[in-house]
Amino acid sequence: MSAKLILSMDGAVLKEYEISKERTLIGRKPHNDIVIENLAVSSEHAAVITILNDSFLEDLDSTNGLSVNGVVTKKHFLQNNDVIEIGKYKLKYLNDQPGEATPEDFEKTMVLNRPAKAAHGDATGRFTPPVAGHGDATGRFATSSVAKPAAAIPAQAPAASQPSAQQAAVQILNGPNAGRELELVKSLTTLGKPGVQVAVLARRPHGFFITHVEGESFPSVNGASVGEQPHQLADHDIIELAGVKMEFYFKA
Predict the structure, then answer these.
(1) Which residues lie closer than 8 Å to 54 by C-beta, 6 or more apart?
(2) Which of 82, 198, 228, 230 could form a disulfide with 209 if both were Cys (CB 3.0 to 4.6 A apart)?
(3) Rounded distance between C-alpha atoms, residue 84 and residue 72, angstroms
């Protein structure tokens, strides 16, 4: 079963929506994927970002906000049976497929323009950002990274037939962390500057993809906007995100 959202009000089911897109918009205007015609709902109220079997909810700076399971939030990693509340309406999230990510993967974002003194570096110059810090009471991403020191990650044998089985990394090309390297060792790595521009680098069976998740403008790859859909990365692609340029490459 693919993931679904069940729209209801006062206990009565109004409509069922299958999540078939990477970015599902919820709002009052007819261009949204899930339309809730009520003045308490903003034109574009929220979005559900889905990567493989994992989804998370983002409030699109709506006027009246939203909550999940009774807790007001800006961002939330969705899990089976979660209930999103927008005004008098409820959206129940159903997904019985196991995902690859954890809530912590979405709650931690590597802030790309943090001065280097706020990070730790080893003798090789690899960048190991601080790991402490999770989402605060508002649900906003904390200023940390989903990465862990390379030594803490069990080595995986590369598979030539599957690009994502290779080890990959990004190297920051400008700003205070220029020259630093971040190894992409998790299924999902969240990069950017919360409130400005955030993207997810996803490791999939057939390669690495970048997906826009927050911000008015989209990240670019080799000078071209990636748009709303996931964009597959090639060796030595240049990514620009939150004013920072970085090079994606596969490691030998």
Answers:
(1) 77, 99, 100, 101, 188
(2) 230
(3) 10
Phi/psi of residue 211, nearest 5 degrees: -130, 130
Residue keyed to tokens 């939030």 = 73
**CB-CB contact of 83 with 90 (8 Å):** yes
C-alpha distances out from residue 92 to 47, 86, 215, Å: 14, 11, 26
State the average pLDDT over residues 96-115: 62
Residue type, 83: V
Could you tell me which residues come within 8 angstroms of residue 100 by beta carbon, excluding any fewer than 6 positions away?
A: 52, 53, 54, 187, 188
Whether the pLDDT of residue 187 is over 90: the answer is no
Considering only CA atoms, which of 149, 171, 173 is closest in space to residue 248? 171
Sheet of 54-59: strands edge to edge?
34-35, 23-27, 46-51, 54-59, 75-77
Q: Write the CA distances from 24 to 3, 46, 51, 204, 216, integer angstroms.
A: 12, 8, 12, 20, 16
Does the structure show a pLDDT above 70 at 240?
A: yes
For residue 104, count CB atoms less than 10 angstroms from its CB and return exposed for 0-12, middle for 13-18, buried for 19 or more.
middle
In the chain, the N- to C-terminal Cα span, in Å, equals 38
Parallel, antiparallel, or unpaired for β 220-221 and 224-225? antiparallel
Its pTM surpasses 0.70: no
- Edge-first strand order for the sheet with 142-143 is 142-143, 108-111, 188-193, 197-204, 207-214, 231-232
> What three-state secondary structure class fits 235?
coil
Length of the chain: 252
